[in-house]
Amino acid sequence: MAYQVPEPKIFACTQSSELGKKIADSYGMELGNIHFSRFSDGEFQPSFEESIRGTRIFVIGSTNPSSENLMEMLLMLDAAKRASARHITAVIPYYGWARQDRKDKPRVPIAAKLIAKMLEAAGATRIITMDLHADQIQRFFEKPVDHLYASTLFLPYLKSLGLDDLTIASPDMGGSKRAYAYSKALGCDVVICYKQRAKANVISHMELIGDVEGKNVVLVDDLVDTAGTLTKAADLMMERGAKSVRAITTHALLSGNAYEKIENSELLELIITDSIPIKPKSDKIKVLSCADLFADVMHRVHNNTSIASKFLM
Fold it and tell me: Which 3 state secondary structure label does DSSP give 232?
C-alpha cells in the first residue's frame, strides 16, 4: 500500500494571527491549535496542542521588531522539530532585521545572516518570504528559500487605475532594479531619487534624476518605516511638475510620526500589503492582502508543483 502524504498543518505566531487565519482560509483549512504559556517576567513557551508527527507544518510569522516576534518564531520551530514534524516551513511575510545585510562600517553585525542561521538551527527546513530588503539575503541560507514578489499584487492594481503618462520612481539608488522591473512590466519610464542620509532614518539631501513634469508618478519601495523618504520624494516630484504621486511599499512599519508625515505630504495614495499587522489611520492608505499569494505558494510547495509564475521580477 502506497504511503499517503498527510495534509499539512498551518500555525501562526501571535502577531501574525490575523494574516495566518486569512492564509489558512484561502488554503482551505483552519489554523492549527497552539497555546502560549507566559511567565510573569515576560518569558513565554509555545505548545502545539495537536500531533504534528510526520507532517509538513507551516509556521506563519513576520519577524519585525520587537525581538519577541523573532523569538516566538524560533521557539515554535524548535518545538516542531522536537515534536517530529516531517517538514517545517517558516513562512515569513516580512523578514525583519534585513537592513543589516552587510558591514557598512567597522564593528557592526550582519544581523540578516545571523537570523538566517538561527532559523535553520531552530529547525526550519524551508523558508517562504516576500520582498527581501536585498535579494542576496537568500545566500545566507543553506535551506531552500522561496522569495516571492509583491509585484504579483501591485501590478494588477496599478493597471486597474488606468493612469496616463505613468512613470515609475525609485526613492533611492538601491531600489533602481525594482523600479526598472515595474517599468518594464508597465511599459513606462523610470526616474530615480538620489538621497544622502545624515544618519539612519534622517535624510540630509535629495535630488531627482529624470523628468516628472506632467507625469503620474508611482514610487516603488520594499518598505516604509518613518515615511521620511517617500514623503520627501513625493513633495519634490510635485514641485517638479508631476500630476500626482502614489507609492507602493510591501512592508508597512510606519514607526514614529509616519502617519502624520503621510497625511501632510503630497502623496495621493500609499498602497501596502498586510505582511505586518496594521490598522490604517489614514484615508490615504490602501491595504492589499498577501494571504492568497502565500496560500497558493504553500499549496504548490506541499504538492511539489512549480511556483515559477509567482516570480514576476
Answer: helix
